[in-house]
Target: DUF945 domain-containing protein
Amino acid sequence: MKKTLLAIAVLGLGAAAASPYLIGSQIEKTARQQIERANQQLVTAVKSNPQFQDASITVESYEKGYMKSTAKTLLSLAVNLPGQAEPKVFDVPLNSEISHGPYLGDAGFGAAKIISHPDVSGLELPEAITNETLTIENLVSFSGAMDQKATVAPIKYAAEDGTMFDFAGATIVSEASLENRSTFTGEMDVQQLIVSTEDEPNQFVLKPFKMDLKGKGDDSLMKGDYEIKSGAIEATIGDDGSLVMQSMEMAGTYAQAKGADMMIGEANGVFKDIVFTNKQLSPDPIKLPELSVMTNMSQPDGTDLDINVKYAAILDSSLMAIMQSPVDVKTADLEVSFKALPIEAVQKYQDLMGDLASEKDQNKAAENMQGELFSILQMLTKNASATHLELHAKSDAGDLNADIDAGFKPGLDLSEQELMMLMGSADPQKLLSVLVGRGNIDLNKGITDKAGMTPMIQIMAADFVTLEGDIFKSELQISDGQLLVNGSPLPFLAPPTGMGQ
Model:
């Protein structure tokens, strides 16, 4: 019996002694899987941004020990910089020390504690930014939960022009899991930033603020949603200027597009109670009660892309005063949509923007742009791509409403040469002949009265507007190569005499 107990004790001690090494082996396997998944996500994300040529994140080395291991991960970014023929490559190593559980000291009982620092010695940064400026700590539990903390140390340095930057630091804490890091909760805490010059000690001061972060998604599918919320964000500008925003909320969704390495989704932002003060600009505070921005890139039929952008604002009379507006606009909504955009055309446009940003020879850039734009235009005409614009504004003197649709005729199959001839023609009717469109514009007469424009509209635009009660109305239509307004063709779109025939 004693021998049996002794054997069990020896086995238990052996298992306890071996556990850090075994845990370390599992952590290494998990870490390599995480980096491989992160690399796939990074590659897909940057391909939709023309500023990046390429990107990758790879494990360069992993030295596993008994209680501790060291790892080196390399983040590589190829960025298209203005005026450079070749993309500039930034290589940032990430050096990590991994402590193996089961007991991790002050960190508690867990599987591993990982402390990482990016090596910024190869980057052209101020001396105040060192390898210790950013610290990333991960604590992994045996259940797979992961607590993460990123800390930016205080930074204080003087630029070449004498401008002094004094940043008190920031932290981001989050809770997620190794299996699915797209589902998380977190908080960002940003400390004070002061920018000073020799003439003005506190030229700009951004006061401390916090943000709540939340996400729910699926790493393997690269799909999910997110939320960002903050309280008041406040900054002072010089002695008599300030900018205050009482709250900010952002939310959105993301997913990988079908048939392309790019991300699609929806993003919404709401910014409330923005107040700007500057005695030199205005004796009274300039207010913007609410501004919201919505963007959405979707694939309603599973192939082509639709892009929708909408701005909506609740305005204040103080803003109208600084703009010297004759009417007091209360609300304004602007929506622009692009429909049936071929994925190939969007990718080609993104590649073109990246090439233009890196091309030193402006003449060569113009030639490349012209050739590629006609290729993109050919795709749009063949796909009958269209655009929609909608504008609504309410004021104390009445409303403005506009609703316009325009697009290429269905069934077109024009060559690049034919498109070049259309675009270069002196006859605008030839270009209008490949388009279809309609629209309505309503403008309250009270607005034109306040602006002093009513007599001019009634005299000079009598054929193109109809006054119904207090509303000026115009109906637009593109038909048979002409742009008609209330049934009358616009005279300035007629071809010059003796040309375009």
